[in-house]
Amino acid sequence: MDGLYIKKNEGISLEAGIESVGSLRLLAQAGGLEVMRQSILKGATVWITPAEDVETLEFFYILSGALEMKVDGSPQQLAAGDSFYVHGLRDELLIRARQSTELLYITNRPLFDSLFGFQDDLTNLLRQIDEKDHYTYAHSVHVMCYSAKILEQMALDGMDTATVSLDTLMVASLFHDIGKCFVPDEILKKRQPLTKSEQRFIVRHPMDSARILKQRFDEKIVEIARNHHERLDGSGYPFGLIGDEISVEARMIGVADSFDAMTTDRGYNRQMGCLEAAEELYALKDRYDRRVTGALLTLARSGALEEIRKGDGSARP
Length: 317
Ligand SMILES: [Fe+2]
Ligand SMILES: [Fe+2]
Hints:
Elements: E1 13-14, E2 22-30, E3 33-40, E4 45-48, E5 57-64, E6 66-71, E7 74-79, E8 83-87, E9 93-97, E10 101-107, H1 112-132, H2 134-156, H3 166-174, H4 185-188, H5 196-203, H6 205-214, H7 219-226, H8 248-263, H9 274-283, H10 290-302, H11 306-310
One fe (ii) ion is lined by residues 176-177, 205, 228-229, 257.
């Protein structure tokens, strides 16, 4: 029948973000209006950000599960059958899934198309990493998952994370090592200690990551990737930046990056357990930001990092 559209498998699926957060599916789209089904996994946190357009409306109906959101400082519980909408939102709204939750999401904010186009671009880059070196690919996915968890924990610990965008953090963490595309295979996969000239290839990979990302993303993402090996005391590379010269996002990815290297068996290192590695990073307070390593330690103690560590990076964004 003209004008009738039936989608039995609920339309195009977009894993918006990472599998440890959930997914977004487009059900219908017309006249600037999008109808989506959003899944949020148990324990995951999502943000609704204020829209630039004052006419923006975002409506959510909880199909199943349970959510908690902080409204003016006090927690509000929402369950299946409840709904809420935002219109003229001024501050970010943080929502945590107390159970795995399914939502019907209707908005006049053109969201899905931009996310889907964005996703395509990212997928091509990711494929390049995976073809070059599966270890780097799995590592990149791990670092992204750890970074998202660290941000969530820092927010739960009451730290001011308002300036940190989860999307920016995830993109930067996923592609922080894309510059390794330029490192010769024999150096990238070498198990013996590297010579001085071989080290030079490794030392320049953050700059190559930044150069590649500059063609696609904004300066914030470029800066994070460029500085993920910088350390607070100036002992990092490529520039030996110190303290405030390194953004909090680059510090977060630096911690997640070192943590993954310490807890992964690469054939030439002693693989540590999550708690041991988190404790060691926490002790290195001159190099790593304690707000970040403190959150990592809390997560390690709760066992929240173990699941990610065991994964092989198949949790594609
Ligand atoms: Fe790196
Ligand atoms: Fe890395």
